[in-house]
Amino acid sequence: MSCKAALLIGLLVCGGAVSAAKSELLRYQTIVAPDGVPLNVVEAGSPDAPGILLIHGVGQSYASWDRQLHSDLVSSFHLVAFDLRGHGGSGKPWLATSYNQSCIWADDVAAVMAATALTSPVMVVWSYGGTIGMDYVRCRGIANLSGIVFAASRSGLYPNSELNPRIPAASEKLKSADVAKNIQGAVEFTSFLTAERLPSDIEASVTATNLMYPPYARKANDGPKILPDGSFYKNNEDQIPSLSLPLFFMLGEKDAFSSAQAAELAIKARFPKADLKTYRGAGHWLFFDAADAFNRDLRNFTLRTIKSKK
Known about the structure:
Helix content: 25-40%
Shape: globular
Distance between the termini: 62 Å
Structural class: alpha/beta
Strand order of the largest sheet: 1-2-4-3-5-6-9-10
CATH architecture: 3-Layer(aba) Sandwich
CATH class: Alpha Beta
Order of helices and strands: HEEEHEHEHEHHHHEEEHEHH
Number of helices: 11
Largest sheet: 8 strands, mixed
CATH superfamily: Alpha/Beta hydrolase fold, catalytic domain
């Protein structure tokens, strides 16, 4: 057996063990998106509590939010996470039109909210998850949201800067038809998520999850999104005036995907009334690196947002 084959088997075994240990503490269901794609949905906390919707980043899953789903947040809030289409335990449709249509992603979010009875939740988006959140805003509006937390997520609202040059190369390997390159790309991509190297069991699980997002889906989701009228858009800067609700931008000081300092300047210029915090010592996966501080800030923001709507 080759080293790479052994690595893949090890990743899958270790990754399964990590999630199985805590799975019984969560509530799982499979719902069907309007176009028939099954979506894996996970809940924690009382359905009667104020809602928080968690949307993960590219190549990941609901398990990205493990340190929130298994925290004291569940004593006060109804937490809902799901695997984006093409990711994790959700369906992986073949056609490019199942990924490159903006409002399909918005429909997925709306379906998850309806199935879990989330009313006016705070939506928390991480990295590429912000693009999905903005698809929802673009296609569905903000009437059924209390606020949005952008966790290390530009969401197409301001330009990127100082991307680690090794990240695009890892992303290209993940889109290759060569499985060995997929594995190498997954290992490399995982290494960029946190400021310090992950514990081996979590590193294995996250790397395996990257491999669950197939190359054809990555390619289909790579270009500009298409709107129902057939027009394209490349970013979400045109949606800035519509974001008239409480916003919280959270940044990781050591984010390999974007300069926190440049992001701070861009956010202050575009969203002067928004909350903004940079987590010292944290990387791109800041709610893992700085889980306690993140959870505390998310709790306070959500409680304050709920009060402001009353």
